[in-house]
Amino acid sequence: MSVMGLGDTATSPDVASDPQAVGLSPFKLGLQRVRRDRLAVIAFWVVAFYVFIAVFAPVLVRILNIDPYALDREAINDFGLPAGRFGGISWDHPFGVEPGTGRDILGRLMYGARVSLLIGTIGTILTTVVGVTLGIVAGLRRGFIDGLISRLGDVTLAFPSLLLIIALANPMTQRLESWGIPQGNTARLTYILTVLTFFGWVYMARLVRGQVLSLREREFVEAARSFGAGTGHLVFKQLLPNLWPQIIVFVSLSLPGYVALEATLSFLGVGLLAPAASWGIMLGDSVRYYRADPTYLFIPGFTLMILVLAFNLLSDGLRDAFDPRSDRQQL
After folding, report:
1. CATH code of the domain covering residue 211
2. What is the DSSP letter of 229?
3. SS3 76
4. Which residues form the domain of 258?
């Protein structure tokens, strides 16, 4: 029995204009639209390049013979500034060196990509899992449980999240260390992921709840219930397949936001601590040298901007592809 709500696909304009689309699920139709969006495809490959750099950073730094943590005193002058032009760019240091330390910027950018994408990915996964779970529970159970989850979301949104994250960084990190979390950046990483999940689940939960409230009244869900389907079957076989488009769009929008937030927290001094390689730490340090060495400010800032821009363009493409009300969809 296939009661996955494919009746909506049969009435889609894409199906009417392309006989090959007949019988495809909304998810597969969305993927076809994404492949035909050139800007989204370019953005996807840019993101894939960053992911490749992050995953294989240890191998790449060995191939390039650079060390993101090694201090190169010979690469800086007596004033602590890069000895060469344009921030000390040379064959040994393709992107120059950090003022004051002489550490290779390219190597630190590669390792910084690991940190940013790790925090962004794990934070997005945790937020999505919690949000989807609570959204489905609220939409299916209704009544008291629905009201409780909704009021909990209202209270969470009422908090000034960024101010609280900054204010509680040190005391909460110390508390985590007292609970056995390794001191230093491990405890800070745990804290960042915790607050991202705590403040970020509400939007996903509300989106899923609204979709579940609509889907639970549809014919294919009623048909499954009439055949005696249990809650597990309804969730995993009927609801989730129809929620994937919204989940994908939410993930694509959340991930760049978390990457930028990690850089912001490190820039403000409440994220990871030096000598950890982080784009936010590099941007924070570059402020002191922006007159004498503007290259050190431009390179990390441009690197972060390109990644966030690529994610946003990819998010736009996914939203246009999976939103049936979008006017830009064309198969």
Report:
1. 1.10.3720.10
2. -
3. strand
4. 24-68+93-322
pTM for this one? 0.81
Q: What are phi and psi of 277, to 5 degrees?
A: -85, 115
* Residue 54 domain-assigned (yes or no): yes
pLDDT tens readout for residues 106-119: 999 999 999 889 99
246, 207 Cβ separation under 8 angstroms: yes
For tokens 């982080």, the residue is 278
What distance, in Å, lies between the first and last C-alpha atoms of the chain? Answer: 28
**In this structure, is residue 14 part of a structural domain?**
no
Inside any domain, residue 108: yes
Write out the DSSP string of 252-315: HHHHHHHHHHHHHHHHHTSS--TTS--HHHHHHHHGGGTTT-HHHHHHHHHHHHHHHHHHHHHH
Hey, what are 320's tokens? 């246009």
Number of domains in the chain: 1
Distance, CA of 138 to CA of 150 (rounded, Å): 8
User: Is 11 among the domain residues?
Assistant: no
